[in-house]
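Help needed: design a sequence for this.
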């Protein structure tokens, strides 16, 4: 007796039923990451300003508890990855 009998049919049904929601969630996640990156790029346009922001986050216990430590504040991508991975 195969324990996974019918799994393929169920996955196919789930994908067919939720194809709109999967696309919406993928778009929303992409838009969130892109807008976060754009915002950080505009707000903190120099390496020094990004480092100061990260230092402020390190000294704020509530922000650190919610989002964790900022590991790479030198780039906009590092700040974006820090912020998006918490979600």
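Sure. Designed sequence:
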């Amino acid at each position: 007796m195969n324990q996974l009998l019918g799994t393929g049919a169920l996955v196919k049904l789930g994908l067919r039923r939720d194809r709109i929601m999967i696309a919406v969630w993928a778009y929303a996640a992409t838009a969130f990451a892109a807008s976060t990156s754009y915002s950080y790029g505009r707000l903190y346009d120099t390496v020094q300003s990004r480092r100061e922001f990260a230092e402020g986050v390190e000294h704020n216990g509530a922000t650190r508890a919610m989002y964790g430590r900022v590991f790479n504040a030198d780039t906009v991508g590092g700040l974006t990855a820090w912020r998006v991975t918490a979600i």
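The first helix runs from residue 7 to 17.
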